[in-house]
Every structure is written in structure tokens, then in C-alpha cells.
UniProtKB/TrEMBL annotation, chain A:
Name of protein: Peptide/nickel transport system ATP-binding protein
Superkingdom of the organism of origin: Bacteria
Biological source species: Actinopolyspora biskrensis
Cross-referenced InterPro entries: AAA+_ATPase (IPR003593), ABC_transp_ATP-bind (IPR050319), ABC_transporter-like_ATP-bd (IPR003439), P-loop_NTPase (IPR027417)
Family that this chain belongs to: Belongs to the ABC transporter superfamily.
Lineage: Bacteria, Bacillati, Actinomycetota, Actinomycetes, Actinopolysporales
Length: 213, 347
């Protein structure tokens, strides 16, 4: 379980974006998170992905409290939560071909069999293998988001935060990426938080398990 | 800006009585318009087929939604009409903008930068860009930016004009004193729509105007664009969001791998699609099955070979779609009354 209790969070000198938020994310399922623009969905995503330290409250990962965020989190904790953002372009280094985008987390964690895992991820996410040598500016948003999803699941995270993952994508690519994530839930037992403002998407993806912020 | 070599078709379309009737004269007509990019560097020799033989018409009162997957060429088409493509672009065919009151047609694809800047952009064609908040200059107020557009396009400076524009898009004139970062997403969207209207252009092109907005804001933006279409104005709406298109489009054109594969009145195309790609896109909607189209759109550099072999590029990706006519192998659009479709005649 990824559990956040009494979260208070915001940005420099700003007002509280999250004020006393509690969220539980169990393994092996998809939980939806809905809410209008500006309600704090993305801030919650950043805290749960251990990318932002909350002002108050606790985050617990499988029973252990998170003490450090960002680089201060332990590698084991950091790699236990994957995240995919709405916009793929700012989420990748424009100087890296897609192959390196996928390899980066594997190499950083000292994994063996990197080329094999890259091939597997390419297959899993339906990324066009011929595009692995291309740079981000040479591929479409849809293909780049597939690469971002591949990178997020490369280390088989126990939890995956999808923050408006399909917000910029067409209907077919949206449906395809949702299938990829569902497959991770089925095979790896991943716990997924699907964040979106699109109620019909969340209903089709998470059924009735949708929390509102 | 330099423009690539152009081989434009300059003959006027068939002279017919309908052309002289004010209301039915097309505001924008594309005839076999193609856009190619010659790649350089390590991919020298390759050619990107971004738009192939597009034929479309926009009439007054229409909201024509151009829909398709990311990377199918729809935004390139919009940029080409405004002369905003990079220098390695090649344009062929014809794209004419007509106007109200028998204003002379202008051939866009061969127009000089001087003509585009002085007579077209903002005056005959207004652009509502993607991501309103980043399109506005962050260091000046909304009012200052609208006033500049009024000065440029109307030749005078008048606060009354700015207030009137704000009123037309449902923006409180008091909000105009704010800087872009102080505006909500919806307000910023209204400011860019207002600035697209300054020159009273008969054609408004909205290029993915709702990306990243939440649903209520998408709906409001769509309604606003729908209201722009009137007796003397049409809207070309470029979007990947079928639900948004459905809300306001009177007509729809579906684009796949650089070609328009189906066109027609929006309700007919959405209710009874003829082309298997349209069927696939609609079935991918969360409320209609959530079923992705298998495979990928082809690389835009390989379309020539693909069409030579398969005729219809989509059938290579998905050979059999239940409920649509078998592929006849012709990639060109064929008209059937008010609708047209490529390769898969109505059945």
C-alpha cells in the first residue's frame, strides 16, 4: 500500500494546494483520481511519486515511512514508484535518442540485460522499434508518451502514478496506453493511480473506484 | 522567412453559378494540396509526406473539424495555410482563401511573405493557437496585447474596440488589466480568441485549442468557437479530441497518414462512419468500447512505397474491419453526395 495521510503541500510562499489530504493506493488495481483544474491533482501526484516534500503529513510505502524526497529518498523507495506526466516533451532530455531514454533508469540501477529489457519494454508499450534511434523531436507525442511509459515501468515499480497521462493524446493512443498499464497491473501487480479530469475515461478505466479531490 | 519551391495550380475552379452566390462561396478551398519535407543531416534523401492531395472546402457557417491521431499531418496543414512552415517544406496543389463581398481569392501556397503578412494573417485567416497561456507575451497585460493587434489590423487605437472584443468572447473588460500569468486558463483562452477576431477574418483556424484544458473548459472553448461560425465566417478546428469535435462541428474531415480519408456532415460521419479508420477512432472512445486501433500509423517517410503496395495505407495496419466495405485500393477521396471517402465505398 502507498498511503498518504494528512498531506499539506504547496509551493514557495504560495497558499496550500493540498490541505489535509488522505489517499490509499493498494497494489494490484487501478484507482482513479478526479477533480477540476487547479484542485491539486498534480501536486498530489508529485508527492506520491516522492518528487516533492509535503509541508506536513506522512507518506508510507508498504508500511515504511518516507523520510526523504527526491534525491534524499532511498533508491529502493524511489524506484518503487513510477510516474508518467501529461506532457512527454518536457519529461525527456531532448539530446537523448529514445533508446537512451529507456536505458537510463536501467543503467542507473545497475540492471543487467539492458538491451533485452529495452526490447521487452518496446514490445510491451507498443513503441515502434524503428524509432528507438530517433530523438524526441523526431517522433510524435503519442510515440514519445509510449517511451515515457516504458521508462516509468522499466524497473517494475510497485506503484505507478499516471498524471493525465493521456491528456494530449488521441482516442486510439489513449486506449492503447491504458491497456499497457492494465497489463502491468495484471502481470506485475502494480498499484495504479490514474489521475484525470476526464470522467468518462476514469469510468472506463477504474470503474467505480474513483476518488475526488 | 524563405519558402520552399512551389508548383501551384493557379487555374480557377470550374466557373459555376454557385460560386457567385454569396453564402455558398467557399471561404477556403484546398485542391490537391500536398506538403513534403526534405530531410537533411543523417536522414538526407528521405522525404516526409505530411499532407497528400488534400481536398477540402470551408463554407460560411461551418465548423469543419479536422481530426486524426497525433502525427497524421493535421497541424502541418494549418501551418501551411498561414505560410508558417520551415524552409525545407515543398508545397503543391492549391489552397485559396476567398472572402466576403467578392474580395479576390488569394492563392495561399504561392503567396509571398509580404502578401501573407500584409493581407492574410489576422485579416483573412485568424489563428487560435494551442496553449493560450504560453502564446501570450508574459510581460504585457492582456489589454496591451489586444490593443496592439487592434492598432496593427484596424489602423487606429481605441480602448472601445478592445472592450467590445472582450465582450464578444465573454471576457470581463476589467480582467484585461491582468498579465497572462494572472489569468485563468479559460480567460487566457478567451484573450487569444479575441485577438484572432481583431481583423474580422472570414476564416478562423483553431489548432488544438483545448489541449491540456479540463472538460468544462474544453466545452466552453468549443462553444465559443461554434459561435464564431456565422453568415460570413467559417471555422477550421484541428483537434485530436473527438468528443470536443462532436460538440460543435458541423462537418468533419478525418485524416490518416497524411491523407484525408473521409469527409462529410459531422452527425452522419460520427453515426455511420464509412472508412475503417473512422470506425477505429470512434471505437477507441472510452464510452464506445475503449478499443485501440492495433499497430501504428506508418512512418510519413514511407507512404509512397506503402501506397504503391497497398493502395489504402490503413489496410496495411488493419486489413479487416467488420462492417465496412472491402478496400478497393484507391487512396483518393471519392464523393458520394455530401460525403466522401477513400478506398472504402459506402456499403
Amino acid at each position: 500500500m502507498l498511503r498518504a495521510s494528512g498531506l499539506v503541500a504547496g509551493y514557495e510562499r504560495g497558499k496550500r494546494v493540498l490541505d489535509g489530504v488522505n489517499v490509499d493506493l493498494p497494489r494490484g488495481g487501478v484507482r482513479g483520481l478526479a477533480g477540476p483544474s487547479g484542485c491539486g491533482k498534480s501536486t498530489l501526484a508529485r508527492v506520491l511519486a516522492l518528487l516533492q516534500r509535503p509541508w506536513a503529513g506522512t507518506v508510507e510505502l508498504d508500511g515504511s515511512p518516507i523520510r526523504g524526497f527526491r534525491h534524499a529518498a532511498s533508491r529502493r523507495q524511489r524506484t518503487a514508484v513510477g510516474v508518467v506526466f501529461q506532457q512527454p516533451r518536457p519529461a525527456v532530455d531532448p539530446r537523448m535518442p529514445l533508446r537512451r531514454v529507456l536505458e537510463e533508469p536501467l543503467r542507473a540501477s545497475g540492471e543487467r540485460g539492458v538491451p533485452e529489457r529495452v526490447a521487452e519494454l518496446t514490445e510491451l508499450t507498443g513503441l515502434d522499434g524503428e524509432l528507438l534511434g530517433r530523438f524526441p523531436h523526431e517522433v510524435s507525442d503519442g510515440q514519445l508518451q509510449r517511451a515515457c511509459l516504458a521508462r516509468a515501468i522499466a524497473l517494475r515499480p510497485r506503484y505507478l502514478i499516471c498524471d493525465e497521462m493521456t491528456g494530449m493524446l488521441d482516442a486510439s493512443t489513449t486506449a492503447a496506453l491504458v491497456r499497457v498499464v492494465d497489463e502491468q497491473v495484471r502481470v506485475e501487480g502494480t498499484g495504479v493511480l490514474a489521475i484525470s479530469h476526464d470522467e468518462s475515461l476514469l469510468h472506463a478505466w477504474a470503474g467505480d473506484d474513483v476518488i475526488r479531490l | 522567412m524563405t519558402r520552399g519551391p512551389v508548383e501551384a495550380v493557379l487555374e480557377s475552379p470550374e466557373e459555376g453559378g454557385a460560386l457567385l452566390d454569396g453564402p455558398s462561396r467557399p471561404l477556403l478551398s484546398l485542391d490537391d494540396m500536398s506538403v513534403r519535407f526534405a530531410l537533411g543531416g543523417r536522414r538526407a534523401g528521405e522525404t516526409v509526406h505530411a499532407v497528400t492531395e488534400a481536398r477540402l472546402e470551408l463554407l460560411p457557417g461551418q465548423v469543419l473539424a479536422l481530426v486524426g491521431e497525433s502525427g497524421c499531418g493535421k497541424s502541418v496543414l494549418a501551418s501551411a495555410l498561414l505560410g508558417l512552415l520551415p524552409a525545407n517544406a515543398w508545397l503543391r496543389g492549391s489552397a485559396r482563401v476567398g472572402g466576403a463581398d467578392a474580395e479576390e481569392d488569394v492563392e495561399l501556397l504561392s503567396a509571398s511573405e509580404q502578401v501573407l503578412a500584409g493581407r492574410i494573417r489576422g485579416r483573412r485567416i485568424g489563428l487560435v493557437p494551442q496553449s493560450a497561456a504560453t502564446h501570450l507575451t508574459p510581460v504585457r497585460t492582456a489589454r496591451a496585447q489586444l490593443a496592439e493587434a487592434v492598432r496593427e489590423l484596424r489602423g487606429h487605437e481605441d480602448d472601445g474596440d478592445v472592450d467590445e472584443l472582450a465582450g464578444r468572447v465573454g471576457l470581463d473588460p476589467a480582467a484585461l488589466g491582468h498579465y497572462p500569468h494572472e489569468l485563468s486558463g479559460g480567460m487566457a483562452q478567451r484573450v487569444v480568441v479575441a485577438s484572432a477576431l481583431v481583423g474580422e477574418p472570414p476564416v478562423v483556424i483553431a489548432d488544438e485549442p483545448t489541449t491540456g484544458l479540463d472538460r468544462p473548459l474544453v466545452d466552453r472553448t468549443m462553444d465559443l468557437l461554434g459561435e464564431l461560425a456565422n453568415r460570413s465566417r467559417g471555422v477550421l478546428l484541428i483537434t485530436h479530441d473527438l468528443s470536443a469535435a462532436r460538440r460543435v462541428a458541423t462537418h468533419v474531415a478525418v485524416m490518416y497518414a497524411s491523407r484525408v480519408v473521409e469527409t462529410g456532415p459531422a452527425d452522419e460521419v460520427f453515426d455511420r462512419p464509412w472508412h475503417p479508420y473512422t470506425v477505429g477512432l470512434l471505437n477507441a472512445l472510452p464510452e464506445r468500447g475503449f478499443e485501440p486501433i492495433p499497430g501504428h500509423p506508418p512512418a510519413l517517410t514511407e507512404l509512397d512505397a506503402l501506397e504503391r503496395e497497398w493502395g489504402c495505407a490503413f489496410c496495411r495496419r488493419r486489413p479487416d474491419t467488420p462492417g465496412v466495405a472491402a478496400c478497393d485500393g484507391t487512396p483518393e477521396l471519392v464523393s458520394y453526395g455530401t460525403r466522401s471517402v477513400a478506398a472504402h465505398p459506402p456499403c
